[in-house]
């Protein structure tokens, strides 16, 4: 007999094989490791052979949302007490809202409970540790959970993510000899004295390859001189002094991003191996006033770009493209002029970006690939141009790229530019934006002598029929444009 839900109520025949019990141990452990720990425990009911196997599952994932944190805490305590003492943990993950938990526990009680869980992970030599305490107010760094000092002595740790946890100054040396991936979020790293936490942590990570600091209050230095395998550094939403001392001799790729970033220049930058750099953040001029930075001054942006002038692959967000526009309007030289071959910029084809785009093309004589990510200005603030500069922008005319008075030489168009990608166009909803992009494509096609392809990547639309019609119209317009390179192809993706 079948129930309405479609599930059969018939029991397995006594003589039929028990396929669940017949599964090999390796496969059972794999299945259990992919389940949340609560569901893994419930597999005890599937078969006698499965009973208790969850106590040796290599991944322990504890996640809590909503109310009744006390029940969650009891569940974690019981689970860890039943876990096999001889098993090493591959991944230990703990995720809950620390502030909400404080509604049911005192801070002392809660910290003691969580510390015991993290000590369990350290005792069982967890290779991956993920601690996310989801605190809403990131300003109160001192109110976050203090990570137990025993974690500094986990020589098995390979990957660590922490959000809203405080790393105190270690008492001895940090022993993270196998750690390759480290992300620290929402933490103050401006420790005093000779042993600030970040410095000591990096000294104890000889094989680290990836370091990300998110929403952190930085000290005046990031010294990764001893981390000879560190290849990527990410500073996202960072807060710190305008003059950072950074030594990252082995880093190949660096990204500085976020809506508000106050560590805007480098007092010293030791990064001889850098190849790929992303600068996608806006400088909060109001906040920077405390450092006596005028609201229309682009000295910090210019200095930062000049220090990174040697990198081959550069990605610039809207704020920096506008800064270059402002320098151009002030008739000041571009801080960029080197051998870079790949350039990515984020703009929305408004007038205040055009001079910046032109400046970048002019200062990249060996550019081979240009990628333009079309953005909306909800992403950040605009520079404040003065009256004369706004008047210049207002008089750009119908086609900025056809104006004879431009002083740009665009050497890359004559000898090297082969690929242009424009990503995020919306020909259906933002035709004005599309036509400004069309003027740019027209200019590139008519000027780039060794161009091989232009790829236009459009955003998907809910109205597919109308969007297809709009694309057909756009393709028709572009197909008739004259081309300087006989090999140039225009395609949509």
From TrEMBL:
Q: Which domain of life is it from?
A: Eukaryota
SUPFAM superfamilies in the record = F-box domain, RNI-like
Pfam family name, one: LRR_At1g61320_AtMIF1
InterPro entries according to UniProt: F-box-like_dom_sf, F-box_AtFBL13-like, F-box_dom, FBD, FBL13/AtMIF1-like, LRR_At1g61320_AtMIF1
Q: Which residues form the F-box domain?
A: 17-65
User: Which named protein is this?
Assistant: F-box domain-containing protein
């Amino acid at each position: 007999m079948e129930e309405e839900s479609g599930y059969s109520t018939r029991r397995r025949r006594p003589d039929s094989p028990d396929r669940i019990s017949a599964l090999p141990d390796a496969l059972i452990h794999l299945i259990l490791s992919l389940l949340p720990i609560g569901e893994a425990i419930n597999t005890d009911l599937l078969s006698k052979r499965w009973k208790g196997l969850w106590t040796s599952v290599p991944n322990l994932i504890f996640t809590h949302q909503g109310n009744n944190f006390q029940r969650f805490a009891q569940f974690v305590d019981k689970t860890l007490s039943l876990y096999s003492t001889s098993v090493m943990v591959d991944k230990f993950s703990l995720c809950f809202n620390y502030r909400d938990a404080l509604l049911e526990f005192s801070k002392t009680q809660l910290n003691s409970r969580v510390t015991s869980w993290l000590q369990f992970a350290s005792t069982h030599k967890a290779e991956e540790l993920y601690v996310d305490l989801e605190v809403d107010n990131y300003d109160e760094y001192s109110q976050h959970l203090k990570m137990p000092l025993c974690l500094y002595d986990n020589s098995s740790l390979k990957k660590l993510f922490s959000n809203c946890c405080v790393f105190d100054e270690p008492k001895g040396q940090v022993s993270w000899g196998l750690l390759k991936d480290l992300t620290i979020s929402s933490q103050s790293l401006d420790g005093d004295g000779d042993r600030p936490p970040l410095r000591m942590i990096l000294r104890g990570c000889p094989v680290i390859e990836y370091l990300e600091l998110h929403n952190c209050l930085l000290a005046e230095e990031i010294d990764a001189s001893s981390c000879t395998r560190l290849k990527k550094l990410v500073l996202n939403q960072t807060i710190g002094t305008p003059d950072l001392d950074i030594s990252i001799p082995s880093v190949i790729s660096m990204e500085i991003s976020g809506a508000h970033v106050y560590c805007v220049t480098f007092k010293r930058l030791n990064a001889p191996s850098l190849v790929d750099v992303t600068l996608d953040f806006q400088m909060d001029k109001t906040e920077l006033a405390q450092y006596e930075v005028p609201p229309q001054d682009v000295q910090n942006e210019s200095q930062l770009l000049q220090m990174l002038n040697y990198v081959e692959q550069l990605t610039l967000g809207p704020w920096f493209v506008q800064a270059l526009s402002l320098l151009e309007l002030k008739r000041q030289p571009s801080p960029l002029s080197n051998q870079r071959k790949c350039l990515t910029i984020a703009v929305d084809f408004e007038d205040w970006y055009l001079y910046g785009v032109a400046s970048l093309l002019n200062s990249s004589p060996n550019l081979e690939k240009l990628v333009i990510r079309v953005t909306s200005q909800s992403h950040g603030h605009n520079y404040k141009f003065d009256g004369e500069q706004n008047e210049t922008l207002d008089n750009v005319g119908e086609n900025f790229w056809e104006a004879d008075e431009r002083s740009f030489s665009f050497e890359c168009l004559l000898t090297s530019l082969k690929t242009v990608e424009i990503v995020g166009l919306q020909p259906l909803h933002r035709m004005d934006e599309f036509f400004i992009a069309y003027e740019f494509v027209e200019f590139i096609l008519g000027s780039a002598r060794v161009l091989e392809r232009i790829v236009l990547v459009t955003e998907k639309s809910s109205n597919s029929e109308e969007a297809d019609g709009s694309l057909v119209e756009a393709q028709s317009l572009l197909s008739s444009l004259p081309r300087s390179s006989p090999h140039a192809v225009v395609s949509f993706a």
